[in-house]
Amino acid sequence: MKHMRLLALAAAVFAAGAVCLAQTKQEQVIEGGGTGPWKSVAVEDATLPTHTIYRPKDLQKYVDENGKIPVLLYANGACANNNLEMSRLLSEVASWGYVVLAIGPYQDMPDEAFYAQWKGVVRGWYPETKEVAIMGNGERLTPYTEAELAARAAEQEAARKAAEAAAKKNRGKKAVAAPAPFRTYPRQLLEALDWLTDKNIDPTSDYYHRIDLDKVAAMGQSCGGAQVLAVAHDPRIKTCLIFNSGIGEMSMSGASKESLANLHQPMLYLNGGTADVAYENANGDWKRIKDLPVVKISTLDGHHGTYYEKHAGAYAVACRLWLNWQLKGQVGDSALFMNDEYGKMVHPDWTFDRKNW
């Protein structure tokens, strides 16, 4: 009888382990797992198909050395159902000891393919300071010559005439709306947090008793920043990071300027300067936020920041320093945000503003 009980117990343990392993369908190591001490992986979990999870590969090692692990919720630029644009930043942050739940199903993209895809993305255009366009891979473009400008103008005019001809040909025909390429909504940030809350008490889960649900941040880029503002009233969210975003006078993805009145946590706004389409919106939010601690940083990197640099460049560093300070209480990492002399020494081209601290 005792032998049978031992066999039953062993079978139960094996089954629990099998369930736990079955949750992870795929995983990918990005840029060697990041520069942090807890090498990260991007994970597809069968029980959260709407999101990608970025986390230290060895969660138990982190917990053994540091206690329960904090959480970052992330919403995408364009409110897209795809987090590849920020995958290098999210992987890098995870390697410093965070579980990141990013809206958008898992998609495998090797490092080479990522950088090849984004090589031609223009980060910013600052003729008064740089006189060149800065590309996503860090290359600088020489300004167009007179002949090149004329050729571009002729090409644009030809495209305009072709569009006019097509419109004339199709006049009177019933237009059929193209299906939207993505569907996301702000509530997905909180749904992911609800999912992780359940997993934290599920003995068969990788996250069982390993998550610090008192240390949760929400971050969004561009339209994703609006999605964060739409749900930031949730008391579980302890700080927000609004990158290349702001609501200003707009209403977008469930957020408006009225949403700012519902904020209750320290805020970081990081934008790409005057070449960033969200620059004025971020400044508008800055003026409207009256009582909360807020830091606003403006760089010269345009709307796409440094997301296409290795390990996502300076924006990834700013992100993890803020999280280290706000969620882990590592006061030394506040220097970038609170010490003007240090900030200017590290990033002489950045402009730092703060209030209510």
In brief:
The chain has eleven helices and 13 strands. It has helices at residues 2-23, 59-66, 87-94, 111-117, 146-169, 187-199, 223-231, 279-288, 313-328, 335-338, 340-346; strands spanning 24-28, 40-45, 51-56, 69-75, 99-103, 122-125, 133-135, 140-141, 211-221, 239-243, 267-271, 294-298, 351-355.
Task: Looking at this protein, list some descriptive labels.
alpha/beta, Rossmann fold, ten-stranded mixed beta sheet, three-stranded antiparallel beta sheet
Protein described:
This protein is an alpha/beta fold. It has a single domain (23-112, 185-355), classed as Rossmann fold (3-Layer(aba) Sandwich). The chain is built from 11 helices and 13 strands. It has helices at 2-23, 59-66, 87-94, 111-117, 146-169, 187-199, 223-231, 279-288, 313-328, 335-338, 340-346; strands at 24-28, 40-45, 51-56, 69-75, 99-103, 122-125, 133-135, 140-141, 211-221, 239-243, 267-271, 294-298, 351-355. A 10-stranded mixed beta sheet has the order 1-2-3-5-4-9-10-11-12-13, sandwiched between helices. It has a 3-stranded antiparallel beta sheet with strand order 6-7-8, with no helix packed on it. A hairpin with a 7-residue loop joins strand 6 (122-125) and strand 7 (133-135). The radius of gyration is 23 Å and the shape is globular. The N and C termini lie far apart (67 Å). Mean pLDDT is 86; it is low at 6-22, 125-132, 134-141 and 177-181.
